[in-house]
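Here's what a typical entry looks like (Protein VAC14 homolog):
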Amino acid sequence: MENAFAPISEACVKALSDKTYDKRKVAALEIEKMVTDFKAKKNMAQVKRIIDVLSKDFVRSNDSNKKKGGLIALAATSIALGKDTERFIEDIINPIMNCLIDSDMRVRFFASESLYNVVKVARGAVLPYFPSLFNALSRLVTDPDQNIKSGSEILDRLLKDIVNESSQTFDLDAFIPLVRERIMVKSSFARQFIISWISVLNAVPEINMVVYLPEILHGLFQILEDPLPEIQRMCETLLAQFLKIIKADPAAADIAKMTNVLIVQAQSSNPLIQFYAISWIKEFVQLSGGEILSFASGIFTAILPCLAFESDAKKNIKDCANAVNLNLLELVSNEEDKQKNLSYLDLNPVMEVLRQYLVHSPVPTKIAVLKWVHHLFTEVHDEMSEHANKLFPVLLRDCLSDSSDEVVLQAIVVLAEIVNSATVKGNDFDQTQYRQFLVELLNLFSENNTFLEKRGTLIIRQLCRLLNAEYIYRTFAEILLEERINLKIASTMVRTLNMILLTTSDLFDLRNMLHDIRNEKSASLFECLYKCWAHCPVSTLSLCLLAQCYQHVSEIVTLFADIEITVDFLVEIDKMVQLIESPIFASLRLALISHSNDNADAQHLSRALYGILMLLPQTEAFHLLNNRLQCVPNYWGQPNKINSKSTNESQCNIKFDELFTYFKYVQDLHHQKRVEKRKKNQF
């Protein structure tokens, strides 16, 4: 009967199928000798027949022993063929690689060993089958059997050596998709395998891996979260190598594509990934210059939250994010390249991101955003003007009510820049933008009286520093007069404005302006403020003292006898007495001993202060004012008739009679309101 396995003898077939390794090994050596003889006789047809028998009847058999024998025999065949293995390489390695996924771990082990021996002989001839080999290796490195893993490492090193030897013909375009498919796996062994291959190829001078970096960068950053420190270090080293190459030759890298990847990674919850991503962004900002501004919205999304990191563990991330922020600011500010750089900046997405971060963000993030908004309004005001309407509600409603004074102050800086830049275009202070802003601010105060009491002084004082204080006070006064507003809010607002006027050093010029009401502009401002200040009698008194309208002060004090003296009223009087002793009212104290205007101002002022003294209970303020009045001449013995033409009031065009009538009218409104409130409380 003809031998179905010819030219392999039946005895050899039996031995090759034996369960013992030694017998299979002897049979494989016999096949090796047969192939050697056929090769010497150039009878390659018989060699092909042997390979087919081994592949079909042994390696593809369901009998694991036959598989093992066939695998050893195929390796022996390749050893016998030597360089001629290349002629049969596909027929040899394909059946071997099929066994690498066998359920029997011993079969997988012999398959890996056999593949190693074939590759060792074939060398560069296996490169056309590199994708299949790489796939096989990627499975072996994660095999649960340690012996198979160890064997795969030896095969891996061999294959890397072969690729190095044949780097000029190596198909990198076919390799990158293989890496991309496997780089997101979670297995530490698989990650180590991928990193090692990328590192090896990156080290070959003839291969430019940076060109393909955008395709695998995301996966590399994900490997940084591996729980094994060794894998993390390998990935860090590889990333450092890539960055070094990019810095040496930025033109060879696709920085735009990689920036998009980095923006995503910079928002990772993993601190290591976040740090490296922001570090790369920092380098890219320096390498790309103004072009990086086209990614500003994404970069802001990534770095702005990092500015609020407080823990020591994230300090390096915060410092790096700060550096990126400052570098971007410099690009926008650089006079030499400003216009060119700004051409890359798309304000719409940038402002959308900045506006979002103004709400529900930590204080450092809000501060950074506000500085950016202010900077953009300074540098590109015309382009930013269209964003003012969307910013206003956020700045007013969210930022000004923030718990942080720093945020409030910085928000006012931005608001002032927006308002001021719109106002300076005209000669008249009463610009629409200016007035609209103060109306909105006043509405905000009206809605929340506590907010006015706690933050009103801070906000108004800062506005006066940044904008024209006269405009602020005049506009506020006109709005309070024109708009229907709660009387209590009006009086609280007046008290706040008055206290700022009397105590803030930044309002020195405004106070000096009010000192001389003979000047038409000063008189106009005084009248405007007076009508508004009428909501608070003590504030009105303070304003008149500041304007040196001492005759009118005396008349107001006399009227106090008919005004309901409330606790709030006495508290305000007490504060005013304290202020009389401050440097701001030095001119008032000197007026008490002045002989100018035929002593008219001194006499009116003295009588007014004595009237205030009589209103006060005997508190510290009473004794303070009493001691002051003991130091001035006694005008009571002088004639009652004072030359009215000598007073300050007589030398200006202000109609004090009309103002006094208006003052009494407003005070009557407040009295009626208090009466109504008491009646409601009774029921």
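Residues 424-430 have pLDDT under 50 and may be disordered.

More examples are in the samples folder.
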